[in-house]
User: Fold these one by one.
Assistant:
Number 1:
Amino acid sequence: MHDDAVGTVAEGRWYASTFLGEAVHRLPGSMAEHLLAAAACYAAEHDLMWKAWAAVGGMGRDEARVHTLAEPDTRRQLVAIIRSARDRDAEAAGHIEHALAK
């Protein structure tokens, strides 16, 4: 479940950052600053997912990773990563709202 969830977030945020980067070329220039800022937030969120995988020893499902995932220190690391991802996501949404208000 961990790999699937992390992979889904990583992929979705990467595509969001790419989409917004391309949208800048097709939308009014007044939106560019905020769209690029949102794209950067999503790219950062994508990178955080690699840290989530690293916290349990990498991608893949084996017994060692399952045991690592159960360790309290690993879970604390993941909580910090999840909170950072949440903050990047909220920041990106704010940038998109500002862009749409232009």
Note: Residues 72-101 form the longest helix (30 residues).
Number 2:
Amino acid sequence: MVLCCPECGSKEFWKDGLRYDPNGDSVQRFLCKKCGYRFSDPIKGNSYKECQTNSNHQLCAILKEAKKLDTATEIKTVAGESPKTQQDIKGKLIEFAWKLQREGITEVTIRNYTKILRLLSEDGANFYDADSVKDVIAHKKWATSSKAYAVAVYQKFAKIEKITWQPPKYKFNQKLPFIPLESEIDTLIAFCGKKTSTILQLLKETAMRIGEALRLKWTDVDSNSNTIILNETEKNGIPRMFKVSSKLIAMINNLPKKKETIFAVRFINNLETDFNYQRKRAAAKLQNPRLLRITFHTLRHWKATMEYHKTKDILHVMQLLGHRNIQNTLIYTQLVKFENEEEYHSATAKTVEEAKQLIEAGFEYVTDMKGIKLFKKRK
């Protein structure tokens, strides 16, 4: 019997730990590379019934089921009455997810919201009893910021369901983001596969959000002028155009043109799972645990920090990030201290083409000496 994914039939998957049956025997678990489905070896256990999909598949199923709901068959829960079964709770989450989607909320946000509500319900929270929700959040062993997020999620649910409550006061503890060295980013890019490395290079050069990058279409890229246009922004961001390197354009053009979008990623969780696996391998091989702290969003922070350090122009950084409120950009004025502050790579150029290549590689022009142009780039 050839082992294949029971969800999509793919024969490509990773080993994903062991599962133990009641007799104490171990059963190998697998993670499908194509669709992200998690399953166990069917020969050693009845795994096809016991396996669980990842959160993206759960969200997809929720939204798919929600679209089938007719107004006459929607679950109606009387205020103050707790859903009595798991099916009732699932029904309320389906309704909530569908209402969020109709408001134009992104799937990533919907997935996070439904996950929080599901965790609260598993601990006994009654969505129609605000005091019950408060008690569960208070007893959760979460960070204060996580509790504040849970309050915000339930606040949205309460607003949609017309539930009156006095939300508890938890404050988001703002922390400075992790800023890796450029050499660490480049090392990680080199370790990843073709698609993931192209995405990382794109995020490094443009400071896009990962969701914005995945919406890019082939028609948004101009290979002749080395520009990329971003029109489908997130968080009400400003549309913008980026001048990128020839290296990035070549990496993009080397990808297969299977769909209208460049990266043809159906579920972001599958991409994140793949990236986490490659990042873990790189960190272990290079014995550098700092690589594990690099996420897709880390590259946005890195680019913004570097641009402010280079230009000291907060409005330029604001435009680069697509922010409409400068308060969201001011955090990068605090991130200008670097390791090896006075250490640079140096390079020279005798021709315009050589100078162009150095600038595209991130070098800064310093001066001319005897007809030779000098450039530097921080280590």
Note: The beta strands are 13-20, 26-32, 38-40, 221-222, 227-230, 240-243, 344-349, 364-369, 372-378.
Number 3:
Amino acid sequence: MRLTWLEPPFSVCRLPARAAIPAWSAQPGAFFCVVRTTDELSIVCEQRLVPAGVQAEGPFLALKVAGPLHFSLVGVLASLLDPIAQAGISVFVVSTFDTDYLLVSTVDRDSATKVLIAAGHSVE
């Protein structure tokens, strides 16, 4: 797989399930994601946009898998996550219609890059 690092740093935020999608999170940028469940509203956005007092984790950098990926492909995430897990690197995964994104702590960027290259992937 061919992967590209996206910047700037991102945060993963948790808000109450019934909360409105906050205007601060929906700024134009390279990557923005909202998922609502009965338990929570999760938002991935640029870290600089997250106001004080919001429950958030980060900073993360996002690795974008070159796509689009066809829905019939099998093992895409496994080929990426297995070597990263074996290296003890935690990730947060977001999948879209066209591709997948792996969010990795900024401190793990170099290690994740090395591990993925060693596993046969291309990282830009």
Note: The beta strands are 2-15, 33-36, 41-46, 55-65, 91-95, 100-105, 122-123.
Number 4:
Amino acid sequence: MLEAMASAKPIVATGVDGIKEIVRDGINGFLVPPGESERLVQRIITLLENGDLARRMGEEGRSFLDSSFGIGRMVDRIGNLYEKLANEKLIK
């Protein structure tokens, strides 16, 4: 999923745990209930037939990836983790 977003490609996936937290249905891709293969096919066809929609969803995915997993965000998360660990060590 993240590689698709990095490439600014829309995602079509089943709405299961983990994926639902990354793919926002109708925004950066489509979520389909598990076991509904015909609906999965229809969503893929929708993107193939509508290049503007596919491009827009791909751009939304890239934006989501950058804001959630970009270098600045990751540096902040790691810094916060170190700070938390240091504080726990000092308290004990």
Note: The mean pLDDT is 92.
